[in-house]
Amino acid sequence: MLRALLALFALLVAVPLAAQPAPPDPAVETARLEDLAAIRQIKHLQAHWGHLALRGQWQAMADLLTDDAVLTFPHGELAGRADILADLRETQGGGADGLQPGRLNLHLWISPVITLAPDGQSATGRWQELALTGTVRQEADWAGGTWVVHYLKQGDHWRISAMGYFLQFEGPYAEGWRHDAANLYRAPFHFTPQEAGAILPQRRAAAALPAEQIAAEASLLYEHGRAQNLTNAFGYYLDRGMYDDVADLFYADARLVVQGGGTWLGQDGVRRFLAQFGAPGLDPGEMNDHLQLMPKVIMSRDGTVASVSAVELAMAGQHEGAGYWSATLNHFVLMRDAEGRWRIASLYRIPIMRSTVADGWVQPLPAITAIPAGGAPDRDQPQRSMSYPEASVTQPISELGIFAPAVVAGAAPEVVPDALTRAEAFDAAENLGNAYGAYINAFAWDDMAALFARDGWRELPFIGVVAGRQHIRDAARVRYGDAGPSNAFQAVHMLTQPYVTVSQEEATGEWRAQMRTRLVQMNSSASGPGSWMAGVYEWQVQRDANGAWAFAGMDLDYTWMAPYAGAWTAADPALAAALQPTAEQMARYRLAAPIRGAAGVPFPAIEALPFHYANPVSGRPPERRVEWTEITPR
């Protein structure tokens, strides 16, 4: 009897001990926190570089470099801060200190893939840059390229130690996206598919932080991501004329200011302001895309207030009618409400540029749009405009990092359970999505497929869903061939504006994320002006037992496709129809499911786009909601 009782006691004790995971190592958790903060700081640093270029603050840009920084082009090199400063002043400023009126210098840094060194003291980033530059009534130019940027941690600050540029296309706006096939240099990949999904080095910090401090600072990083979500949602809702959803993001007593244009108060004021973009919803052939790019997010140390500065690049107008470009600086101030939801307390918009699609920014229009009937502001805004061409943005900005002092001195943030893993999901999902874009630009099908989990699935536009990593790779080869990229034609996929939602599967404990990103695709040609495509991705991302993230699923809905000339005003459904496979071609695919969204490219027709999330403030569901879906390989 005694022996039986002892055996039962041993079983009762042993089972819970075997099932209990080992407690987290404080030195490992501290390193994870430090490295995740480093990734956010690096993204902030590069966005700051782009915001400074817009303002012509060449010296402030040079101050972001190490003393011995190197800038490399395919046919030359600049070494040292002084030489790089002189080059910035000459090539971007026309030899002048500051940006002179009549000059546009918009350099947009998009689609980062960031990898940290094993010791967490240096890093490499791959970025897409899209540049809109020009001088009023003289020239308007495009340039697009890939930057490979090396970063070095110096004390508490990150600095740029080297920048290498690989030109994809450049030239006058009137001529489109062209490149010289004989002198096309593609950027090498500094990362593997596995490194794209395992964003944090496996290391231990030299000095471990207390568990309470790790939890508090990780919660700030998680809220940092959620704050960016809100401003990206603003852009997505504005795209589709979802004005009630836009207004829901604002506090009842919010303020919306357009520099030189007026002040609108409260949610009713927000709705009146939105009247300048047309009636709610989208009519057939109406374009209203508002990309939110190059965000700089700064969070108060108590996690109650955040500011987000982003460049809004807008494409608007009517199919077979007039089309318009515009650029605006958006400065959001967000506050958390009593339920922990981020909401917009104020939005300050600085119009930068507006032009027609026909002429481009060589012949700019007034940057502030006319106020329609019923859209009048509550107050005038007498401050002068800083818009091109009469003036330039002169508002100074500091290099303030991703955190600012607490609103209430000494106040601590609200701790979010598992905040470190939740925060990591934001950057891992974005890294994977942007690596995907880089790989498909290079026709690197093995690497692209390796970003997916073994049983992951991918929606092929016009065709259907393939499931299983091998089938994903094989289907890409069937669709696009296996000869690698062509020097005659470049498809430049840029993914941006991530909205990330994180969850943990109750039954298995598996961490998951869903992410919405925007596709901006500019196709460059060696013999013509090129073409456009745009769309929305919805991603499913999962974390494995080793802490690496991979795609579990991918939806892609194209929204519009057009030749370069005329852009969305000249969208031709016949271009999309030419991409539809024949029955014979369809037979070559091993499909696990049919197309989940639009079968082709609907514009100028308007179809509902997928959202994996409800309105983050009101909870209003979208017209087309996509849920986490398992699709079995065939």
From TrEMBL:
Signal peptide: 1-19
InterPro entries (alphabetical): NTF2-like_dom_sf (IPR032710), SnoaL-like (IPR037401)
Keyword terms of this UniProt record: Signal
Gene3D superfamilies the record matches: 3.10.450.50
Stretches assigned to the SnoaL-like domain: 35-163, 228-347, 422-553
Top-level lineage group: Bacteria
Protein name per UniProt: SnoaL-like domain-containing protein
Species of provenance: Alteraurantiacibacter buctensis
